[in-house]
């Protein structure tokens, strides 16, 4: 779960929604099960997708920060290849 950076926030939002739904039910308002499931799925799915997107961007940033290391590694491989 350490790699899914936004999952904890998504779970907190889901728990907040469930708590709100319980209060609404107590006050006489009914929220359909399909709506509740949709909110939960969209919230958790968004958290996972944002986490994956953030991982991709951080990997791209690593490549941009250290291009000389990557280029040096590739140069060593080219030197070792037979001609």
Automatic annotation (TrEMBL):
Q: From which lineage does this chain's organism come?
A: Eukaryota, Viridiplantae, Streptophyta, Charophyceae, Charales
Residue ranges of the TM segments:
30-52
> What is the name attached to this protein's record?
Uncharacterized protein
Source organism superkingdom: Eukaryota
The organism of origin for this protein? Chara braunii
Identify the keywords attached in UniProt to this record, alphabetized: Membrane, Transmembrane, Transmembrane helix
């Amino acid at each position: 779960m350490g790699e899914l950076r936004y999952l904890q926030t998504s779970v907190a939002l889901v728990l907040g929604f469930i708590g709100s739904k319980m209060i609404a039910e107590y006050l006489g308002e009914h929220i359909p099960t399909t709506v509740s499931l949709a909110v939960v799925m969209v919230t958790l799915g968004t958290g996972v997708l944002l986490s994956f997107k953030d991982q991709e961007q951080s990997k791209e940033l690593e490549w941009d920060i250290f291009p000389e290391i990557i280029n040096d590694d590739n140069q060593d491989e080219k030197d070792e290849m037979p001609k």
